[in-house]
Amino acid sequence: AGQHVARQGAAFRRDQEVLAAGASLGAAQIGLAAEAGAVHVLAAARPRVAIISTGSELVPPETVPAFGKTRNSNGPMLAAAVTLLDAEPIVLGGVGDRPEAIRAAVAQGLAADVLVLSGGVSAGDLDLVPAILGRCGVETIFHKVRLKPGKPVWFGILRRPDAAATLVFGLPGNPASSLVCFELFVRPALAILAGRPRQSWHLPRGRARLTAPAKSAADRPVYLPCRLDRVAGGLEATPLPWSGSSDLVGLAVATGLLALPAGGNLHEAGAEVDVLLLAADAPA
């Protein structure tokens, strides 16, 4: 007698906190809230993120590119990155380097919580995005940072007196630059909007020993793809082949990023460096 009985209060007691502020609401959490009688809870909505790829050179991924054209990899890549952060991507497609087309897409994207554009933020004649955003009422917060890859990154805010502001990120058009800037700048913004705890805003950071030499840039910090392995005594970081800011091959298999400070120094094998953990299953 008395066996196999779930006793009242065995799992939690009256006035006990069962879900902390900042907790993500998955199936188990929603079930626990219902069990506790919390029919109504205060929760942050999933951020809505509009995504625009700019550039007359872009063609849809299913298209065979003609000479001088390239497939639009940034759109699907950024939509996937947004989805993996439990935000809602709103893919507005690609637009050519025509002011009226970019402005129309921007006007549509500014209805979201966050607008992310790729391309058009550098210093060329066809880099039209910052000026168009300004004409749409978006306030520039910063443009260009000491960073490789990703120097041209742009950030601004559309403030509204009677509604929530829209955060606007202009990412470089080169795919590797675009993804690195997303992880460094957009990821924390989405985490804050989603009400996540501070410790989850940024990619996890650690220290690792190099298995091969790696060179930093002279004028700015550099983030290079690497593979992280857990070994006796800590983490090892193996630099991966990488041909520059348009190269996604290394990032596609990377589990981390080497975070090397400016200075143009050669970090020899065995040196300990900062790393950012990219993959969910990367060794911590």
Short description:
The chain has 284 residues and is of the alpha/beta class.
Q: What is the molecular shape?
A: globular
Uncertain runs: none
What count of helical segments does DSSP give? 6
**What name is given to the CATH topology of the largest domain?**
Molybdenum Cofactor Biosythetic Enzyme, Chain A
Summed up, the domain count is 3
Strand order of the largest sheet: 4-1-5-8-7-6
N-to-C SSE series? HEEEHEHEHEEEHEEEEHEEE
CATH architecture of the largest domain: 3-Layer(aba) Sandwich
The whole-number mean of residue pLDDT values reads 94
**Name given to the CATH homologous superfamily of the largest domain:** MoaB/Mog-like domain
Portion of residues in beta strands equals 25-35%
Largest sheet: 6 strands, mixed
Overall number of strands: 15
What CATH first level of the largest domain would be assigned?
Alpha Beta
- Radius of gyration from the alpha-carbon trace, in angstroms: 22 Å
Helix amount: 10-25%
First-last Cα distance: 47 Å
